[in-house]
TrEMBL record:
Pfam family, one: Cupin_3
InterPro entries the UniProt entry points to: RmlC-like_jellyroll, RmlC_Cupin_sf, UGlyAH_Cupin_dom
Name of the protein: (S)-ureidoglycine aminohydrolase cupin domain-containing protein
SUPFAM superfamilies: RmlC-like cupins
Keywords for the protein's UniProt record, in alphabetical order: Membrane, Transmembrane, Transmembrane helix
Domain (S)-ureidoglycine aminohydrolase cupin: 57-130
Membrane spanning residue stretches: 12-31
Database matches in Gene3D superfamilies: Jelly Rolls
PANTHER family reported for this sequence: OS04G0445200 PROTEIN, RMLC-LIKE JELLY ROLL PROTEIN-RELATED
Length: 134
C-alpha cells in the first residue's frame, strides 16, 4: 500500500512543479526584448535606459548634433525641450531649487523639459547626440 501511495504522490507532485516551470520559461523566451527596457521620470526629466536600436533609428539620433566635454560643472537653463542620447560618459544632474539630483550615462535617452534649470556636473567625459525642439 505504501508503494502505491508514494507512487501516486510523485505522479501528482512532479507534474505540478515541472509544468508551471516550463510554462514560465516558455513565456520568458517569447517576450520581446523591448519589454526589458527601463523608462522612468524624475523631476520632470524622462529617462530611458538602453532604448532599442529601432527607436534610435526612428528618432534619427545619428543625424543630431554632437557635443562632448570632459569633467566640468556648469549651470544650465533649458530654453527649449532638449532630447539627448548619451553615447558615453557619466553626468550628475543637480536640479535647481529642489535639492535633488540624479545621474545619467552612456546608453541613456533623456528628455529635459523647457524651462528647467540644472547644474550639469560631468563626472566622466561625455559624448552625446542632442536635438532641440523648436
Amino acid at each position: 500500500m505504501t508503494t502505491s501511495k508514494g507512487s501516486w504522490s510523485l505522479k501528482v507532485v512532479v507534474p505540478s512543479i515541472i509544468v508551471p516551470l516550463l510554462l514560465s520559461l516558455l513565456f520568458l523566451k517569447l517576450m520581446p526584448k523591448e519589454t526589458a527596457m527601463k523608462s522612468y521620470e524624475i523631476f520632470g526629466v524622462k529617462i530611458e535606459k538602453n532604448p532599442p536600436q529601432s527607436k534610435l533609428t526612428e528618432l534619427g539620433v545619428t543625424t543630431w548634433k554632437t557635443w562632448e566635454g570632459g569633467p566640468m560643472k556648469i549651470p544650465w537653463s533649458f530654453e527649449t525641450e532638449e532630447t539627448m542620447y548619451l553615447l558615453k560618459g557619466k553626468v550628475k544632474v543637480i536640479v535647481e531649487g529642489s535639492g535633488g539630483s540624479f545621474e545619467i550615462g552612456g546608453g541613456d535617452l533623456v528628455v529635459f523639459p523647457k524651462g528647467m534649470n540644472i547644474t550639469w556636473e560631468v563626472i566622466e567625459a561625455v559624448r552625446k547626440h542632442y536635438s532641440l525642439k523648436n
